[in-house]
């Protein structure tokens, strides 16, 4: 039902992670989750909860809202 939204969030996380030259493993460690979970989220495999979004945003140093927004 929300597949496109999950994909958008995943792409945003990947964008910010790569902008910081961070690996999925490094992000996973900072966000206190598994690398497989980070990979699933980046690939848009939902559902995932808001706690995951908050943890990833904190690890990336961005406002969680930025992870939810569609790029223009």
Automatic annotation (TrEMBL):
The keyword Cell membrane does not apply. SMART domains: HTH_XRE. SUPFAM superfamilies: lambda repressor-like DNA-binding domains. It comes from the Bacteria. This is DNA-binding helix-turn-helix protein. Residues 13-67 form the HTH cro/C1-type domain. InterPro entries: Cro/C1-type_HTH, Lambda_DNA-bd_dom_sf. Coiled coil: none annotated. Keywords: DNA-binding. GO terms for molecular function: DNA binding.
